[in-house]
Amino acid sequence: MSKKIGFVGLGTMGYPMAVNLKKADFEVIGYDAFKGVYEKAEAEGITMVETLKEVAEQADEAIISMVRDYAQNVDIIFGEGGLLSAQPKDKTIIVMSTLDPNTMNKLCKKVEEESNLRLIDAAVSGGASGAQAGTLSIMTSGSEDIVKSFATIL
Known about the structure:
This protein is an alpha/beta fold. The protein is 38% helix and 25% strand. The chain has seven helices and seven strands; from the N terminus they run βαβαβαβαβαβαβα. It has a seven-stranded mixed β-sheet, sandwiched between helices. Helix 1 (14-23) runs parallel beside helix 6 (127-133) and helix 4 runs parallel beside helix 5 (101-114). The radius of gyration is 14 Å and the shape is globular.
């Protein structure tokens, strides 16, 4: 298991999740469209980068997506300057957005057909207080081997 994790989406839920990963001795490479979070995140020891490409280049094996919906996931992965602009290989995107199963399957199929990435679904429940306390419930689906390989992150 790698120690350098990419993290996209440091909002109400993502920020405390990234901080908790840092406290668990992971190196977190963070990106958010809202640059106002950068100073606060860097004060917690999170390495903030300016582009999604840098996240994909610097993450060892896992990139966590904690963005709002399907459209934002598609944008951060496939959009101009998105994660795929780094041409990453052998990495897994852990989608922690809460997407319905059909939408998640559509995203997974798109990722598998158009990239060298893998994707697992890891929807969270517990709200901002659970994210801060590190007590979120995480419901995973995807290849059992891949999901198990990221158990320490989850």
